[in-house]
Amino acid sequence: MPIYEYRCKDCGKTFEKLVFNSSQSENVECENCKSKNTEKLVSAISSAGFSSGSSSGSCGYGGFS
Ligand SMILES: [Zn+2]
C-alpha cells in the first residue's frame, strides 16, 4: 500500500497518509485543521516502481488530414 504525502493549503502542514484505494487518495482531510483543501505531493516515499500515465501513442493526434 502506498503512502502519499499531502500538504494542506490552508495551514501549510505536510503529512503522510496510508492510502488503501485510489479513490481515497483524493480529498484527504488535513490532520491538523481538518480542512480538505489539501494536495497530494509527488514524492518517492514508497512509490518505487509505481508509474502512471504510461499510455503509449498519446504523443499528439495522428488523424489530421
Ligand atoms: Zn490544515
Note down, in words, how this protein is organized.
- The chain is built from no helices and 3 strands.
- The model has no long low-confidence stretch (mean pLDDT about 75).
- The chain has a domain at about 5-40.
- It has strands spanning about 5-10, 15-20, 40.
- A hairpin with a 5-residue loop joins β1 (about 5-10) and β2 (about 15-20).
- The protein has a 3-stranded antiparallel β-sheet with strand order 2-1-3, with no helix packed on it.
- Helix content is about 0%, strand content about 25%.
- The chain is an all-beta fold and about 60 residues long.
- Bound molecules: zinc ion.
- Zinc ion (ZN) binds near residues 8, 11, 32 and 33.
Record the strand order, biggest sheet: 2-1-3
Terminal CA distance reads: 46 Å
Percent of residues in helices comes to under 10%
Number of strands: 3
Average pLDDT number? 76
Q: Which ligands are bound?
A: zinc ion
Overall spatial form? extended
Number of helices: 0
The biggest sheet, with number of strands, parallel, antiparallel or mixed sense and barrel status, is: 3 strands, antiparallel
Percentage of residues in strands: 15-25%
Q: What's the short story on this structure?
A:
This protein is mainly β and 65 residues long. It contains no helices and 3 strands.
Key terms:
65 residues; mainly beta; 3-stranded antiparallel beta sheet; extended; binds zinc ion
SSE diagram, text form:
Layout: E1 3-8, E2 14-18, E3 38-41
Antiparallel strand pairs: 1-2, 1-3
The structure holds zinc ion.
